[in-house]
Amino acid sequence: MTSAEKRCGFVALLGAPNAGKSTLMNALVGAKVSIVTHKVQTTRTRIRGIAISGQSQIVFVDTPGIFEPKRRLERAMVAAAWGGADSADELVLIYDAQRTRRDANTQRIIDGLRQRNAKACLVLNKVDLVKRERLLALAAAFDEEGLFSRIFMISATEGDGVADLMAHLAAAMPVGPWHYPEDQLSDLSERLLAAEITREKLFLSLHQELPYALTVETESWEDFEDGSARLQQVIYVARDSHKAICLGKKGATIKAVREAAQHDMTQLMGRKVHLFLFVKVKENWLNDPECYRSWDLEFDA
Ligand SMILES: Nc1nc2c(ncn2[C@@H]2O[C@H](COP(=O)(O)OP(=O)(O)OP(=O)(O)O)[C@@H](O)[C@H]2O)c(=O)[nH]1
Ligand SMILES: [Mg+2]
Prior knowledge:
Layout: E1 7-15, H1 21-29, E2 47-53, E3 56-62, H2 72-86, E4 90-96, H3 104-115, E5 120-125, H4 132-143, E6 148-153, H5 162-172, H6 190-205, E7 214-223, E8 229-237, H7 240-247, H8 252-269, E9 273-281, H9 289-294
Parallel strand pairs: 1-3, 1-4, 4-5, 5-6, 8-9
Antiparallel strand pairs: 2-3, 7-8
Helix pairs in contact: 6-8
Bound molecules: guanosine-5'-triphosphate and magnesium ion (MG).
């Protein structure tokens, strides 16, 4: 084997909801390919972000958080997360180092890894918010599990420790040809990415259960000769009362969501985007197989 040989592989990012998986993937890829909010259960499916480090192409798989699922969509999300783990070359467990006690969700992942006889790297994330002594104690406690080949201390928002993790993973990738063109950063289509951006803004603007009771679909996309694009998206909600909250007083909420989403889309796609949003009631979208198919989620997980 020579050092010039190309390497390529998959790295699954696992962790409890809100641990910082998507933030870390964006830091590794160097672009925002997965949406991030302060709320749990933001990521709904496996999203691939692609990075190159030396001769290695690393395909990161951001997964929904692993938690105890109750509803159909939640079961599908957790199944997608484990599916990402089972098809990966390397696993990274991300833990929010602010937690003073190990949570049941992280324990569930550790048990699942043990059942699978899998080794993983551990990332203690959000180290910018935690004192060093506590981090060392945490690392020692996790080390006792005998499950982790390496432990990294990272701040995904500040970028601390990200290069070390990347170098470790790059060297661990199997030898083989790259799966994606050199300039590709994600496997999401532009339509899906645009829907995710709008969903992020809705998550940030709406409260309680509402963000979890809606979904966004890019219905039409027109490209114009001047490089600009016109996108029409539908926000599906389950009830009339949800529609009213989504629109806000005199349409103020949806207006702010539209403006923020359009701004991000224009930036990310590097061209002018004109966004049009419609809110529709579709009572049963959570039980619509088509919706699951479009997300590459299993309907009967
Ligand atoms: N201070 C600090 N905040 C962080 C760091 N990493 C992530 N966060 C914040 O933690 C919150 C959750 O981040 P996400 O990346 O959405 O977490 P996730 O694990 O993908 O969450 P789900 O998709 O819901 O499972 C956001 O508010 C992030 O800004 C970090 O290193 N430091
Ligand atoms: Mg996420």
